[in-house]
Amino acid sequence: MGSRRNRTPDAPRLPDLDAGEAAAGASRIGNGALAGVVAAFTFLVVVLDYLTGADLQVIPLLVVAPALASVFCSVRQTVSVAVWITAVVVVSRVLMGGTFWGLALSIGFTVLACGLGVASCVARIRHAVEIARLRTAAGALQRQILRPLPVLTDQVFAHGLYEPIEEDRLVGGDIYEVVESPHGTRVIIGDVQGKGLAAMGTGIAVLGAFREAAIREPTLTGVAGALEDAVVRHNASSAQTGETERFVTALVLGFDADGRVEAVNCGHIAPRLLHHGETWVVRLRRTSVPLGMADLSSEARAAEWFDVPSGATLLVCTDGVTEARDASGAFYPLDDRLARWASRGPREVLDALSTDLEAFTGGVRRDDIAVLALRGVPVRRGQRPGLPGSGASESQALAFPHP
Fold first, then answer.
1. How far apart are the C-alpha atoms of 178 and 402, rounded to whole Å?
2. How far is the C-alpha of 26 from the C-alpha of 33, rounded, in Å?
3. Can you spell out the DSSP letters for 180-196?
4. What angle do CA 204, 210, 212 make, to 5 degrees?
């Protein structure tokens, strides 16, 4: 059987490169406001210079204006401010009189300072444009590495929350994927040991292997075996370049059409079930070692089944959630918090979890966060679910309460 592409509702569009560059070079202050501020500052300095006389020259303070404009304004605005300040200094020095060299030194200093202000503005905007281009490329790369959520398959509606620890890095060491295959929907969530680009490379290797094995392998243990091989090969390649060998904790799930879930736990956090206002931990008895460490264990990886009630939400996460700490060092009480939200739908649970984690940690996180909220999609015999907005009403298309 051939593979079927996942149906992703309303996948976010890539940011517009030209728009990003334009925003990077845009001014943070309007022309009218800028003119008013510069005029008031100029008037104040000129008056002070007149009152202090030749004993204390205050007019050189005007060069502060182009310097500040270079931080907040566009190049055109900064040039305008520089020209205005230069003109004011020249006129002021000519009217005040003085020696030729004194006049030349004052004007020369002003021109130099204004030129530096314009050059600083050009350098700032050029750097901002480069960052905008990198963020656009990183956004495109992220969409190739991690699939945008939500994802709808024949068996599962998957919502997700993903927050890398570094604001300037869109992809961290946590990974997830949802694949619709001839053997049902298969899901992985994992956490690569360590951080940085090296950990990201291991995560990419695991994701690539999962996308292939999820479709090719008839058993979930076969999928886990393919992931183990991928991590071992990647570690062997990394060792040749002096990189540290890494392991990956992962939870691999398989969903069938009868509401049952098969799991192979490779040293990962157990999933949680939310149903009818209650929440509980799914106790997996056959947890094995993380990916990349199979040689250290004499036991083969094994799969086990558990039931997910109709309308229940299965929540899986990485240790960035369970090991989040508050200011006193206490761990985040995930199960206590989930009990408060057990009657909510998947999207609402994820929103509440994200907000609560931010408040609990005070905005100081120590690890990436990845969470998937999965809800089964019962399908009537001979009928495939449709996408929201596909023509039929959403309740008829999905045949389960909207999450």
1. 20
2. 15
3. EETTEEEEEEEEESS-H
4. 110
Kindly give the residue spans of alpha helices, DSSP state H, lying in 146-254.
196-216, 220-240
Q: Is the peptide bond before 60 cis (omega within 30 degrees of 0)?
A: no
The alpha carbon torsion through 18, 19, 22, 24 (nearest 10 deg) reads -110
- Residue in the block written with tokens 């060998």: 245
Helix (H), strand (E) counts: the chain:
11, 11
Cβ contact 157:346 at 8 Å: yes
Nearest to 292 by CA among 252, 233, 366: 233
DSSP state of 7: B
Identify whether the C-beta of residue 262 lies closer than 8 Å to the C-beta of residue 220.
yes
Separation between Cα atoms, residue 243 and residue 255, nearest integer Å: 36
Alpha-carbon span 258 to 101, nearest angstrom: 92
Closest CA to 20 of 122, 121, 138, 133: 133
**pLDDT tens, position by position, 302-314:** 999 998 888 899 9
Nearest-5° Cα angle at 272, 172 to 308: 120
Answer yes or no: are the C-beta atoms of 265 and 200 closer than 8 Å.
Answer: no
- The angle that helices 346-361 and 334-341 make with each other, rounded to 10 degrees, is 140
DSSP string across 294-340: GGG-SSPP--EEEE--TT-EEEEE-HHHHT-B-TT-PBP-HHHHHHH
How does pLDDT run across 42-90, given as a tens digit for each residue? 888 888 877 776 666 777 788 888 888 888 888 888 899 889 888 888 8
Question: What's the rounded Cα separation, in Å, for the pair 247 and 103?
Answer: 71
Least Cα distance to 272 among 258, 257, 261, 256 occurs for 261
The predicted model scores a pTM of 0.66
Q: Report the C-alpha gap between 232 and 295 in whole angstroms.
A: 10
Q: For position 16, what pLDDT does the model report?
A: 43
Q: What is the largest CA-CA distance in the chain?
A: 98
Tokens 């728009």 locate to 19
